[in-house]
Amino acid sequence: MKLNRILALVTLSFITLASCNQKKTEAKTQETPAVVTTEETEEFDLIDDNGDPIIFGVQERATLEKPPYKKWFDVGYKEHPLDTTTVAAIKEDLAKTNITVFMGTWCEDSQREVPAFYKVLDHVGIDASTVKLITITEGKDAPENLIKEHGIEYVPTIIFEKEGTELGRIVEYSIFSMEKDIQKILNGDGYKHPYAE
């Protein structure tokens, strides 16, 4: 009697396991649209936990404002409480700064911080096309040359440079607020991101 029960449980386990593996195989074989915008972008069929394509390479902001990324971009943009006083104080210096943003479309921190960053730019009146936006894979292995060149370990990473010199970077999340962190970086107030040594 006990042996029959054990055999039944083992058989049931194998059937369940085979069923789950079949679903995973079917999900992987579904065609996933790859969004590519430059020759620096390689094409991989990667999807995030929500089933959305993971894009990587040099992108445009407009890509984030289209489905499937639009759902989190719009929420992050709308929910960021803009500090208009600080934005007014950083407007001139921010306009003279070169900015590079590394992010992952799969990353919750990127989904929160990057739309907030663009909201600040919009309020200041900076054209988003002046910002270099680079999306990377979850394993941070593409585009490899850009990741190594800038020492990217966490995303998002927003790098501020002036005349070829890095002023500072916001890494993964803002410490005070997006606006205040930018102000501290631009003013040279000794801002350190959470992972700075």
From TrEMBL:
Keyword Secreted: no
Alphabetical list of SUPFAM superfamilies matching this protein: Thioredoxin-like
Name used for this protein in its record: Thioredoxin
Keywords: Signal
Signal peptide (UniProt feature, chain positions): 1-18
The keyword Coiled coil belongs to this UniProt entry's keyword annotation: no
Top-rank taxon: Bacteria
Record organism: Dokdonia ponticola
Gene3D superfamilies in the cross-refs: Glutaredoxin
Lineage: Bacteria, Pseudomonadati, Bacteroidota, Flavobacteriia, Flavobacteriales
